[in-house]
Design brief:
Structural class: alpha+beta
Distance between the termini: 23 Å
Helix content: 10-25%
Strand content: 25-35%
Amino acid sequence: MGALTAPLQYPAARRDDTVVDDYHGVNISDPYRWLEDPDTDEVKEFVEKQVQLTNSVIAECETRTKLNERITKLFDHPRYDAPFKRGDKYFYFHNTGLQPQNILYVQDSLEGEPEVLLDPNALSEDGTVSLNTYSVSEDAKYLAYAISSSGSDWATIKVMRIEDKTVEPDTLSWVKFSSISWSHDGLGFYYSRYPAPKDGEVVDAGTETNSNLYHMLYYHFLGTDQEGDILCWKDLQNPKYTVGGFVTDDGKYLLLDISDGCDPVNKLYYCDITNLPSIFEGFRNDNSALPFVKLIDNFDAKYDYIANDDTVFTFLTNKDAPKYKLVRVDFNKPNTWADVLQESKNDVLESACAVNGNQLIVSYLSDVKHLLQVRDLKTGSLQHQLPIDIGSVYDISARREDNVVFFSFTSFLSPGIVYQCNLGTGIPDLKIFREIAVPGFNRSEFQVNQVFFPSKDGTKIPMFIVAKKGIILDGSHPCLLYGYGGFNISITPSFSISRIVLTKHLGFVYCIANIRGGGEYGEEWHKAGSLAKKQNCFDDFISAAEYLISTGYTQSRKLCIEGGSNGGLLVGACINQRPDLFGCALAHVGVMDMLRFHKFTIGHAWTSDFGCADKEEEFHWLIKYSPLHNVRRPWEEHPDKSVQYPSTMLLTADHDDRVVPLHSLKLLATLQYELCSSLKESPQTNPIIGRIDCKSGHGGGRPTQKLIDEAADRYSFMAKVLEAHWIE
């Protein structure tokens, strides 16, 4: 690595060897259990010493100032999201460049003068209050919006009158993992929340670790106190379920979506809400739920609402279709289902939006690139293929009553395009509505390739490789390899300013490996990297690294791996399994303690992907790869006695209430003790440090300046240890 001026002096962390748990007859010690309580002085002191250590390392990283300046300069450009229509108004998000948070604008027409509707930057001095979710009423008279502080998942819902921007007194607390869905009469909306904590349970929402249980669906009448909100659904028998309520496009039905964990499966109930006020009258003083009808009452598939004509409903589902299909059912004949659009042989049907009366905008994922089509809603038949570049489509804004669709597009070399597509013309009229330009970025300087490499078991894994044009494959280049591999989430091409700066000014090759566990090839791909098969994710990622080395893109000491959340787990597991293969590792907000993750906040929902150590068979899966429990001293078992762990930075944040910081803190203490302790003779000279951010969470809602600062910190550390030098 690039040498630091002096060997690091790691802070000593107390080990409590009396903490031992019996897992099905196997004793597992947990000497840093005390790091699980963020409110103790001892934990705060541990964090403070780690922050000082990390700051001392980053201070020696020569490229930090240049990275910060260059990333800031390129970030300073106008950005827009696709507009959406409600009532007779249009709404869109915009950022002039370096504003902490995007601002919501409203206009009377696409050509009308835009006005600021909601500016989250006015809600805090440091930009750490962000918009969590929002919904505009059907008549465009009201905006209901949820705000979060310091990146926490907790949110508070407020209401604004759009005409005069007046914020109403309505304040709804203890909201988490919620959508907002208005009833079409505009009297109020449905939202999801947890019970308020008991007295003394919470000091600072976002830093607590207790489990989130008993998610409930409520209806809020405008202008009333939260205490009077109507409880629409709760399930005391199943405290780990999460629920969401959604009003259909015609306003006649409320759909109840019930999930258990993160698998793409759900129960689906419905309630006829045509006579909503009279239904609610009987409930205002009654604690029982709405009279839902159970359409799907087991967790065997995913059902997403697409459209309905009275009782005839169209759903997107993976029922007997791991790459998804469209199906139709009449609520009056709930046992008779028909295919509308059959499952594709090769491509994953990601979404479908009803538009222009009886048409659909359909999005497929084909070898990790999006395809957009116009199809007939009634028959599913293909009408038009929309001509888009190789990349990702997101933010599709379409309503059934409108004939104009908006959607956003991005790719590795395209900062973003908002397209407008008019379907009222017979042949779709597709044009660029707004194009995002980054001053100083020239796409012709770069090249993008997609390759398919074999994993350990022979499975072909796709990977994107972004590099300077005309790169010579002589193994000399620093390389950043990114992965995720979990929860059915697909990592598709997108534009990254910080990574473009790495490629241009530090000569990096940047790669995304689309490993198993994600959704890139549907539910079979997801299942092939979860539960008992989780090791496939690590094998795929290690094979990606070996491919990049064998083909001459890079070499081990020049290779950095990076991932966040489940991808942080990926990085943690891979440095344990192959410490010799990497020169640097950046693990963001990772799930590192695979035996106890289900005990904190929403961790219980992840057992659908990981399993749970409370079950004997699943314990034996988890203990094999849990990053915290597999730290080893490679020089003791490797023929090369000088093999050590790569330079490693674990990143976490004090308000991450998704993957709580204790995961990274416990792993950090373990790595430093096992590898770097002065009590043990060790060849480990590569630094093992933690970047612990304040007033930040799992990643959502982070202000622009925090994004830039973190990128400059972690990538200057990476450049230092991989000996990558600045090129103007």
